[in-house]
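Task: fold both queries, return tokens.
Query 1:
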Amino acid sequence: MIIKYGCLAVIACFASHTLQAQVKVQGEVKHALQLTPAYLVKMTRVTASANDHDGKAHSYSGIAVSEILDSAGVTTGAQLRGKNLAKYMLVKCADGYEVVFSLAELDNNFTDRVVILADSVDGKPLPEGKGPYKLIVPGEKKPARSCFQVTDIIIGAAK
């Protein structure tokens, strides 16, 4: 379940992270982004429920990846057809872990699932070693693509 709410109530959550906490959005984008707490508070907050690696359900809060991709000018919506269906999003984490998604998996025209870049869990900032940002992929049988300490989002195209 996804719940949208205003950003003013959660500024304190983002403010708890240092200004050096950032995620770079780059690659085949119109506008490369540096996602910092100051940038993210301007975006619409959503929540998503997902199980963690030990099977317990948690409520995560953050920004929908689709909104981030729109802000970067990534190919979405009506433009996501033909050769553009070979485009993907690669997510890199601080420990070297990487996961990949086709852009169609993240596009509201293809799916009802909302993947989020979370900064809080159960109303609290992500714990040290798991944040400041975690990718949350609701509805997957295994949480392997719900990765933590996200540092980069790179858009590319399979050749």
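Query 1 returned. Query 2:
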Amino acid sequence: MTAWTTDELERIAAADELDVAPRRGDGTLREPTTIWVVRDGDDLFVRSYRGDGGAWYRTARASHTGRVSAGGVTKDVTFAEEADPAVNDRLDAAYHGKYGRYSDYVAPMVAAPARASTLRLLPR
């Protein structure tokens, strides 16, 4: 498995927003959707603001592959589902810490529907 480099982790984690473009069933990339990204150790995570109602999220779950861009880094990724409740608790804290100034938007990102849509980004 490929790992993120320290530079990639730092640059993506420092970016306020990430563009995510999951692959469709025909192999083409969806138009990028701008979302938030947080770091936990050597891993990067995203969630769907709309939970499983997010179109980008449904495509990512179906294909498990796509491309992300943030902080000057563009990388093909695998979207891995994250079921560990301890990770979700840490991610909630990361969302509050990084995006707390957007309090109206953080609350849905740490609510049950968004938590259930947590995906780990694995570089390909």
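Both queries returned. Flag for query 2: The chain has one domain: 6-123.
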